[in-house]
């Protein structure tokens, strides 16, 4: 479990239909609380977040008062919409 106040590295990979890593355009990141209410974003993901072709990571500080957060990356590879989501369980100990 991650603690509120921790910095976490959010990771996403974008693939084409054949499984090859590709770089989409217009990549954004949104963060939602346990009730799926938007609490951060949309944040533009750019070249500073790029690890390699199709792989991106963004640092995010988990806010106070959260027990679960959901993150959502969206992008437009090859003119199509792609969505990737993840969950982080967090708390204050």
In short:
By secondary structure, the protein is mainly β. Helix content is 0%, strand content 57%.
Report strand %: over 45%
How would you characterize the largest beta sheet?
Answer: 5 strands, mixed
Name the poorly predicted regions. Answer: none
How many individual β-strands?
8
| CA-based shape | elongated
How far apart are the first and last residues' alpha carbons, in Å?
10 Å
- Give the helix proportion (percent range): under 10%
Question: What's the overall average pLDDT, rounded?
Answer: 92
Question: What is the topology, as strand order, of the major beta sheet?
Answer: 1-8-7-3-4
Class by alpha and beta content: mainly beta
Note the total helix count: 0
Secondary-structure element pattern, one letter each: EEEEEEEE
The radius of gyration over CA amounts to 14 Å
